[in-house]
Amino acid sequence: SSELSQDPAVSVALGQTVKITCQGDSLRSYYANWYQQKPGQAPVLLIFGKNNRPSGIPDRFSGSDSGDTASLIITGAQAEDEADYFCNSRDSSGDPYVFGAGTKVTVL
Amino acid sequence: QVQLVQSGAEVKKPGASLKVSCTASGYTFTGQYIHWLRQAPERGLEWMGWINPNNGDTKYAQKFHDRVTVTRDTSITTVSMILSSLRPDDTAVYFCARDRSDTRTIPLAIYDSWGQGTQVSVSS
């Protein structure tokens, strides 16, 4: 169930910076986690908790949060960054976890 | 390396039941939660439930609580998800995913490893 709000699509010029946002009440209490998903593939964890990157994730991916909004920042976007990006977090009402519907990033 | 390997694609009739398995390797099976999620065409991910492979405890999403059952077999490091009373809108790709959280703590839904996905089609 998608209870975190994300813009459906954004575009970024090659080498430029793009910010992808995720908004919801749960983010006032819990951190967002960010995933990248390419067509036909399983998602890949990019950022978790307070701006933590798993091993192997390039440092051009970073996260930030403010109030009810979390952001994924891609600094110096590469062609291979063209993908869907979605967020999730814990929640304290209803089901214990919520997801965003995803943002499609196009690299121009 | 950590691997989650899921069973193959399924085609089902409405009203039937579905079983998808997820076999883990490369880590201590009982050490981390396994979640099931699904992704319908052009839609976001939907959380279905989790299992603690250490003790078999489960928790399900309210939407699925009367139709889904998740079990584990520690002898073959496999988690299975059964979804009953299938409907056409259950057509989706089903994923298992490992939670980064240790089974001694609460599951945080930080998915650090995923199965390859299982395509399920429900149609008469």
Low-confidence stretches of chain A: none
Round the Cα radius of gyration of chain B to an integer and report it.
14 Å
Main interface: chain pair and counts: A-B, 23 and 22 residues
Give the topology string of chain A: H per helix, E per strand: EEEEEEEEEE
Question: Helices, strands, pairings?
Answer:
The complex is a heterodimer of chains A (108) and B (124).
Chain A: E1 2-4, E2 9-12, E3 18-23, E4 33-37, E5 44-47, E6 61-66, E7 69-74, E8 83-90, E9 97-100, E10 103-107
Chain B: E1 3-6, E2 10-12, E3 18-25, E4 32-39, E5 45-51, E6 58-60, E7 68-73, E8 78-83, E9 92-102, E10 111-114, E11 118-122
Parallel strand pairs in B: 2-11
Antiparallel strand pairs in B: 1-3, 3-8, 4-5, 4-9, 5-6, 7-8, 9-10, 9-11
Give descriptors for this structure.
heterodimer; A: 108 residues; mainly beta; 7-stranded mixed sheet; 3-stranded antiparallel sheet; globular; B: 124 residues; 4-stranded antiparallel sheet
What does this structure look like?
The complex is a heterodimer of chains A (108) and B (124). In chain A, 0% of the residues lie in helices and 47% in strands. Chain A has strands spanning 2-4, 9-12, 18-23, 33-37, 44-47, 61-66, 69-74, 83-90, 97-100, 103-107. Chain A is globular and about 40 Å long. The mean pLDDT of chain A is 95. With 124 residues, chain B is mainly beta. In chain B, 0% of the residues lie in helices and 52% in strands. Chain B has strands at 3-6, 10-12, 18-25, 32-39, 45-51, 58-60, 68-73, 78-83, 92-102, 111-114, 118-122. In chain B, strand 7 and strand 8 (78-83) form a beta hairpin. The N and C termini of chain B lie far apart (40 Å). Chain A binds chain B through residues 1-2, 33, 35, 42-45, 48-49, 54, 86, 88-90, 94-97, 99-102, and chain B through 43-47, 59, 61-63, 95, 97, 100, 107-112, 114-117.
